[in-house]
Amino acid sequence: MDITSIIFVLIGSTFGLILRIIIENNFKIYFGFNIQNTTIVNFIASFFLGILIALNFTNNKTLFLFYTGFLGCFSTFSSFIYQLFLLFKKRKFMSLFLHYMEVIILSFLFFFLGYYLIQTIK
Amino acid sequence: MKIKNFIYIIYIIGACYAATFLRIFIGNNFIISLIGSFLFGFVITKRLSYSKKKILLSGFISCFTSFSGFIYFLYKILYQGDWIKFIILLHLILIINILIMYFGSWISRKIT
Q1: For residue B22, which of A76, A73, A52 has the smallest C-alpha distance?
Q2: What is the ipTM of this complex?
Q3: Sequence-ordered list of residues with C-beta below 8 angstroms from that of A8, at least 6 positions apart, any chain
Q4: Nearest-by-Cβ selection for A42 from B17, B19, B67
Q5: Which of A104, B20, B25, B71 has the fewest C-beta atoms under 10 angstroms from its C-beta?
Q6: What does pTM read for this prediction?
Q7: Closest by alpha carbon to B23, among B93, B90, B70?
Q8: Cβ contact (<8 Å) for B68 and A45?
Q9: What is the dihedral of CA A92, A97, A103, A105, to 10 degrees?
Q10: Domain locations in chain A?
Q11: If contacts are CB pairs under 8 Å, which of residues 51-80 in chain A contact chain B?
């Protein structure tokens, strides 16, 4: 890694961190099922990932800026596992299974939404 | 803005940078998610102050693990058209991570 890619990673991670903390603290959305703020963050991150893959970057520096820096700090896997873990501890296996399925299906839906959005524009 | 808040923000950003470079250094997504879940379970059952917990959980571990890397890994398998491998790996990764988090919280309860 040279110095410019380190700077790109630092810029991307700062933006991702600040955006995630703003969304975690300020947004409260209730529609239909019970949905947490970190799950919304993950949906947005998978939408951006779909756009990024459809654009098909070969340049290494843009990948460092967006994928490693921005998306890596913006999305959290451990908070998602923590919500499953809380349901596991309360022995609510049915809602654990439903939450599990809906997060995976919706995030793949958002991923392909971003992917085909760019494919049709191109 | 108070001085105390400013120092708190600097701590969070520093933890985020450390986590990002540690993630690049390790490189393997599955090992990262295992370490992240273990640490999350370990920290969440420990009795710490609110700001320390916020720095560790929201700053360090959330930047360390990345959901988009997980989705990208699954997408690469799905792109090859291997449906059975996709379904098995998806469930295996999630179940192993939940169990590792349970193990981390169990160890933290035993120690204190």
Answers
A1: A73
A2: 0.84
A3: A61, A64, A65, A69
A4: B67
A5: B25
A6: 0.84
A7: B70
A8: yes
A9: -160
A10: 3-121
A11: 53, 67-69, 71-80
